[in-house]
Amino acid sequence: MNFQLTEEQDMLRKMVRDFAKNDVEPTAAERDEEERFDRGIFDKMAELGLTGIPWPEEYGGIGADYVSYVIAVEELSRVCASTGVTLSAHLSLASWPIYKYGNEEQKKNFLYRLATGEALGAYALSEPGAGSDVASMKTVAVKDHDDYILNGNKVWITNGGVADLYLVFAKTNPDAKHKGVSAFIVEKGTEGFSFGKKEKKLGIRSSPTTELVFENCRVPKENMLGAEGDGFKIAMSTLDGGRNGIAAQAVGIAQGALDAAVEYAKGREQFGKPIATNQGISFKLADMATAIEASRLLTYQAAWLESNDLPYGKASAMSKLFAGDTAMQVTTEAVQVFGGYGYTKDYPVERYMRDAKITQIYEGTNEIQRLVIGRMLTK
Ligand code: CAA
Ligand code: FAD
Fold this sequence. Notes:
This protein has helices at about 5-35, 40-45, 65-80, 80-100, 105-115, 230-265, 280-305, 315-340, 350-355, 365-379, and strands spanning about 120-125, 140-145, 145-160, 165-170, 180-185, 195-200, 210-220, 225, 270, 275.
């Protein structure tokens, strides 16, 4: 067993940390306030190779591993959780399934464009009546000669509106629950595909979350990923890895909040001494740091398992569950350490606390992670 990062992983961490500090953090609060997505940040990530971290060079990637990927999401989220999820949704939700299930032509076209950052990706599974219960989705795709005609609505889509390629799940056989779902790659600008409501959110406000509307949207059959009826399996196996990306986001948010809390506790004086010298505060910081380290280890372990072609679904559900709960606890405590100042926008901890909440909800709520883990334990 070796807990040391490789030289490449360590170098990537330093590179992303510098990029996050210089190019992402300075505008994080302002983008949050204005609910503004910045495509320029994504373009810079592409220049650094971050948009294709785990894919082979022939598909436009940099041929690194999944540990490197989670390190990148962690470091970005340490300063801006919206930027962290932009990369996570692009990479593990939109690109991974094409790498895993795409034919050579789809990889050379769609995956290459995603990996090089020419295109930004999104993953469209959820619907107004089908969130946790994915199989009850209503969007349909009806075969018409060499095309499929899509009709229906997807909601809550991260990178919605700003993404160029959308992985959309629809029923090709509405009577067959799971086995009736198929997956399609839909390009922005396709006739019959438009954007609906953009959500106004509590946190990750510079990551757009948007409704997708399909009205007789004609998609060529070449854009189907896998075979007809493979969609549910593709969606679920994609989430197996995607959830670990959210765990990495949660670790980053929690670490950012702890860093801020430690600095503040050392500088803020009450009763004639820094508040950090009170055991009530230093024990709090110790518990926060310990929970973060445990979350990080679960997250890196799940990524290591995936990199080594070992089963990682349960590990990933556990990392997401534990790291998401940790992020919520740690950021709440960070606001507490700051006292009244933590409740204002003068310091970043209120943003971390608002951002942390989503890590318990998306890519399967933490109740659903417990359901997934429980089923794996007892099956
Ligand atoms: N990999 C491959 N196949 C899988 C699988 C997996 N991980 N999980 C289930 N399956 C297969 C099963 O083997 C089963 O196949 P058979 O019919 O051949 O036996 C089939 O799928 C049905 O499985 P279940 O009976 O377990 O399905 P279910 O209807 O009970 O649902 C669930 C299971 C885990 C609750 C699932 O619906 C789920 O994950 N819900 C949460 C949805 C979710 O996470 N959404 C995230 C949207 S993306 C997002 O939020 C983006 C963002 O954060 C940025
Ligand atoms: P519901 O499924 O209605 O759940 C409501 C409550 O009931 C939750 O607490 C849930 O845990 C609980 N519950 C439901 N079923 C059970 C059960 N069997 N046992 C115990 N408790 C249960 N989706 C995408 O497809 N793509 C995206 O890019 C995407 N990005 C998102 C970004 C944001 C900001 C948000 C808020 C959501 C995003 N989602 C996305 C959707 C997200 O995955 C869903 O919101 C989530 O899966 C929960 O579904 P729901 O909101 O319909 O809640």
